[in-house]
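Here is one chain, start to finish.
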Amino acid sequence: MSEVLALWFTQGIKLTCFLDLHDSKSEISHRRELTLTFENRNSYSIGFDQGVGYWNHDLGRNKHYFDFSDKVNTQLMKMVEVWSEGKVKNAADWKTVVYINKL
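Its structure:
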């Protein structure tokens, strides 16, 4: 999975990425943070707090299941298919709180 995600960012969408993976949800705070650093060296912290848990992927039947024992190319091809066909939607009438801070 780590190899597939690294290739997805570096080759697929031409971005470098640092992944911080955990084995348990309890190791991760409720608030999620995404840090973006641009070529001009400006960095922004984007905090996703309330409501993100209500986001769902509308991918069609069973397209969200990945077999991580598949070859990397097979996983990447499936990700491209899901990326092009999938949609994000809100599953409940709940606002999402997003914070943006310049670092």
